[in-house]
Amino acid sequence: MMAENINDLTLDELRPLLAAELPRHAGFDGWGDQAVESAAAALGLKPEIARIAFAGKAAMIDAWFASVDAAMLDALPPPTLATMKVRERITALVEARLERVAPEKEALRRALTILAMPHNVALGARLGWRAADVMWRAAGDTATDYNHYSKRAILGSVYAATLAVFMGDESADHADTRAFLARRIDGVMRFEKAKAQWTKRPAIGFSPSRFLGRLRYPG
Hints:
With 219 residues, the chain is an all-alpha fold. Helix content is 74%, strand content 0%. It is built from 13 helices and no strands. It is elongated.
């Protein structure tokens, strides 16, 4: 994006550009106006325009995580994922997310601290669910029954646990994090296999899957 054109963009067009640049400065300046102004200067954007792009720290973090989602999907397009088994797809997607935040660990640490504050807990949970949903959809999941919810809840917990290991990982190429993730994904796959066998049994009376499916897609 040329500097002489960026100031003519709408706020909706500017936010993804700023979101991708913000963490490079939030690690030093924190998630606030200074980081926004530094990101704007790096992009050639007028600071007075940049300051109205986000309504607070949480909105900045939300936008950054959305940009991580987009970068992850760019790194693993559908034709690439199509050549993998489901286990490999999920592993590759989680690793791709981690690779994109790895250069900005301090910004991530500050972001997670902000999301852990009581007034941001609901947002943190929503962003975790969104990340899991984006990954499962990219992996080809089309479930509409209770599996839709259980898969995202489980992957969200796996990603959160892996992220905790990642934040303290000083091994080469984050080898310890990759090994931890592999063990957790293996556990999830075993669980999914057992669950699939259980759900093949004839249902009697009330069906949780039909009930949740109707909640998500009401007639």
